[in-house]
Amino acid sequence: MGGPKLSAISRIPYWLVCLRGNGVQWIARLHEVYGSVVRFGPNDLSYTDSQAWKDICTTPKGRRENGKDALFHGPANSGAPQMIIDNDPEHHNLVRRQFAPAFSEKSLKAQEPLLQKYANLLVARGREAAVTATVVNMTKLFNFTTFDSMADMTFGESLHMLENNQYSEWVEGVLSFIRILPFIQLLKYYPILDKIFELIEPKSIAKMRLDNYNYTARRVDKRLEAGAGREEDVWNLVIRSGVVSKEEMYSNAELLMIAGTETTGLTYYLGMNRDKMKILTDEIRRTFSHSSEITLEALAKLENPEKFAPERWLRNPECDPEYADDNREAHQPFSVGPRNCVGLNLAWHEMRLLLAKVVYNFDIELQVGPDWREQNAYLTWDRKPLMCRLREVNDTAVASS
């Protein structure tokens, strides 16, 4: 297998690019040079072959599940691992089974009014910008929406960011903390450095790290003290089981809050590819005569509205032959196997709902260029502001289009 010579004996090249937020781009370039399997550290390999998903992430009968790298993920603040990195397969399965019903189709159908509430608040914010011809940062608006709705589902209470049109102090802290995660990872791989850092750790970093955990723990405690909530509430279902400890609730609440959906990038690519935007816009506005008709069930029946290049994915005579040989199995944004995303159903529904509501109600004009794609990643993407100009399209105009 190929890779930089230094990477065969040291992880330093990898850490340097990760600290700068360029790890994703660096590994992609290595694959261009060295092929489908790349060594980027003494014990680290990256694959682009779709078979790797099956070999690494799935567990055929009779084979033990591959473990998670405890150093890479680091210890949880509560002392209990999040469900996706729990190295005890049986315990992971037990905990996951308690959370999974909250993200079933039945549960999400019951929670649709909550999702609609925040989608409509997003549209209201967009209308304010459209009326005043103000250029609006869609990255912020989508973040407000996903954090508010996830907080309501997870804690039974919104963060009120859409209402206040600004980040809450806690979310600002979370987004800032994400940028130093590669540094914290690095320390865990080198115990001596970790011990030294414990002695000299700036109070600001310690506060940032603990504030995130303490805030989440307080919100979980408050929700538990409130007793029974909505029938399909996450904690109603988990509490009934009696098998998830409070520490595990804290850890997994942190996970649920930062694992929001990604609609910003999709909006950018649609805006940069006007022919694809027209396909989606025409279908949405032809299918629905009023914004209130846009529901989870109705959207699930549309022909792949969430994908910016439908010809890449649809297997029919109209497919662009350019994509006929694409290996679609290599694209697994929610992972595969027993550790795949427990909130997959929610993610798809939320992406479809938010995008459909925005496209139905507004014509979108990007105020950014191709360089918007050049973004840093610190375990998650550090998204740039996506500045857009919105022009409201009322129901009458939609009906006549």
UniProtKB/TrEMBL annotation:
<dbReference type="InterPro" id="IPR017972">
    <property type="entry name" value="Cyt_P450_CS"/>
</dbReference>
<dbReference type="InterPro" id="IPR036396">
    <property type="entry name" value="Cyt_P450_sf"/>
</dbReference>
<keyword id="KW-0349">Heme</keyword>
<dbReference type="GO" id="GO:0016705">
    <property type="term" value="F:oxidoreductase activity, acting on paired donors, with incorporation or reduction of molecular oxygen"/>
</dbReference>
<dbReference type="GO" id="GO:0004497">
    <property type="term" value="F:monooxygenase activity"/>
</dbReference>
<dbReference type="Pfam" id="PF00067">
    <property type="entry name" value="p450"/>
</dbReference>
<protein>
    <recommendedName>
        <fullName>Cytochrome P450</fullName>
    </recommendedName>
</protein>
<dbReference type="InterPro" id="IPR001128">
    <property type="entry name" value="Cyt_P450"/>
</dbReference>
<keyword id="KW-0560">Oxidoreductase</keyword>
<dbReference type="GO" id="GO:0020037">
    <property type="term" value="F:heme binding"/>
</dbReference>
<keyword id="KW-0408">Iron</keyword>
<keyword id="KW-0479">Metal-binding</keyword>
<keyword id="KW-0503">Monooxygenase</keyword>
<dbReference type="InterPro" id="IPR002401">
    <property type="entry name" value="Cyt_P450_E_grp-I"/>
</dbReference>
<feature type="binding site" description="axial binding residue">
    <location>
        <position position="341"/>
    </location>
    <ligand>
        <name>heme</name>
    </ligand>
</feature>
<dbReference type="GO" id="GO:0005506">
    <property type="term" value="F:iron ion binding"/>
</dbReference>
<dbReference type="InterPro" id="IPR050121">
    <property type="entry name" value="Cytochrome_P450_monoxygenase"/>
</dbReference>
<comment type="similarity">
    <text>Belongs to the cytochrome P450 family.</text>
</comment>
